[in-house]
Design brief:
By secondary structure, this protein is of the alpha/beta class. The protein contains eleven helices and eight strands. The chain has one domain: 3-Layer(aba) Sandwich (Rossmann fold). One of its GO terms (molecular function) is hydrolase activity.
């Protein structure tokens, strides 16, 4: 029996200016340099727990909010990337944090970039980890990911049947690895270790409010973005595995080449999850300007 890590997941809340509730969790060093973590799709604040020991050792305080409709955060109609940047700015202001780094993993990559583009006075550095690329980018080798991307670009409604199938896959620890690539099978298997249990709990918590928020999020990710990568002027680093089957390296290369002050760190023999699981010290240390 795989333990359900959602049962002891930390949760705090703030009320946003428009009245919505935004849920978040903090990990790492409680007095460390602040870094906001933007979770994947699906996902939740729980994935901020990945690499928590490494972030604590690096002197980094990870602030991991749930996006609208995921986990314990209220839904939002007509959500945009700009809205998310505003939500993060409001959350950090409530916490007394004026400047922070951002880390975006997978589907959270564009949301981290949006924070850097829309609120550059607040964001010091932006790290994109295995991140989804801009419209027109190459899609992954996993069939359901390619189908979701294509359907969601037309309309979030078209993606809902595929989202439902994904939700069924993550309902069981035995089938969870069906939604990851071969290079990630060991890291993502909840029957084998801590990282897999965190990822399973993260996906399940991300689907807590049903599949509609996930379909909506895919629509934002694969629709037309409300910012240009050229608008991201803060120092940016793209961390990507060469064997990523969910989001190909070419997507990361495209982001790194389009952002004015960006570079690319490629991990050999690594899939989608290794950069955020096993290289958390590098990722968060860089984002917080606390490199060893």
């Amino acid at each position: 029996m795989v333990p359900d890590l959602r049962e002891d997941a930390p949760t705090d809340e703030v009320q946003l200016p428009d009245g919505r509730t935004l849920a978040y969790a903090t990990y790492g060093h409680p007095d460390g340099a602040p870094v906001v973590f933007c979770h994947g799709t699906p996902g939740s604040r729980i994935s901020g727990r990945l690499g928590a020991d490494a972030t604590a050792e690096a002197g980094v305080r990870v602030i991991a909010p749930d996006r609208p409709g995921f986990g314990a955060s209220d839904r939002q109609r007509g959500q945009t990337f700009a809205d998310w940047a505003g939500d993060v700015a409001a959350l950090t202001s409530e916490l007394g944090v004026e400047e922070y780094g951002v880390v975006g993993f997978s589907g959270g990559g564009p949301y981290a970039l949006a924070c850097a583009a829309h609120t550059p006075g607040r964001v010091s550095r932006c790290a994109v980890v295995s991140g989804v690329g801009p419209p027109g980018s190459e899609r992954g080798d996993l069939g359901f990911e390619r189908a979701l991307a294509s359907a969601s670009r037309v309309s979030p409604q078209f993606g809902r049947p595929l989202v439902w199938l994904m939700a069924r896959a993550v309902a069981s620890a035995d089938s969870f690895t069906d939604v990851v690539g071969d290079a990630d099978a060991d890291l993502a298997d909840p029957r084998r270790g801590e990282s897999g249990r965190v990822l399973l709990a993260d996906f399940r918590e991300g689907l807590r409010q049903g599949t509609t928020p996930l379909a909506t999020d895919y629509g934002v990710l694969y629709g037309d973005w409300d910012f240009d990568l050229a608008d991201v002027t803060v120092p940016t680093r793209v961390f990507h595995g060469r064997e990523d089957a969910n989001v190909p390296l070419a997507a990361g290369e495209r982001v790194a080449s389009a952002v004015p002050d960006a570079d690319l760190a490629v991990y050999e023999n690594a899939g989608h999850f290794r950069p955020i699981v096993e290289e958390a010290r590098d990722v968060y240390g860089w984002a917080a300007e606390n490199e060893a």
